[in-house]
Predict the 3D structure of the following.
Amino acid sequence: MFLLATYFVLGAIIGSFLNVCIYRLPLEMSIVSPPSHCDSCGHRLGILDMVPILSYIFLGGKCRYCHTHYSARSLLVEVLTGLLFATAGIFYLPGLPLLTVFVFFSCLIIITFIDFDHQIILDKFLLIMLVDGILFHFTYTKHSALANPYWDILWGIGVGGGLMLLIYLLSRGGMGEGDVKLSFVLGFWLGLKGVIVCLFLAFVLGGVVGVLLLASGIKKRKDPIPFGPYLCIGAYLSLLFGPYLIYYYWHFFAGV
Ligand SMILES: [Zn+2]
């Protein structure tokens, strides 16, 4: 329990860094300079203004200097990263395998929010996920008998990426190029079964949310609805809960 709480705090700290990446990288700004400041009054933030989660709560979501309200999004990203890290800690042993999963989840969060805001998926994070995935498979194979065999990884890449490439070609612009590239990388990470679970969840979630957005009039038919966030949610659920999801799916829906 103490270990999981530690992972949550670590996740929240990383989450406040992810907030900086999500905000600055699509605008091609540096993530180190200028130092963190209030976007409204420009006041440089002190250490007490930047404690993950707590600063937001104790300052009431406002700037200490000019009292401008900040969006709750930064708080959401910090809490979410904390939760993702803590849940990863339940399934992976401390060490390199867990570290690679932390990096993977951090990339998923960055891709989700940047795609949501700007409808783009930055190649640099796909590359980080790819290198991180090589490390994950390499270390995980050494640590567990449950590791994906290499043919399963190849099938994952082929089926996951291939299916999305087909949809991309058939839909002529209905699916983004970034979504296809992301699916290849997720296939590499998740293997065959994993990537099928991931895509299934992404299409179901994306479909339900898409219908709700259209029905409620928030989005029009022609508005772009980013698919990256759903792929990322699917990837998270698939990596940690994939085998359980497959079991329950067959149990309840197929009656096996
Ligand atoms: Zn301010």
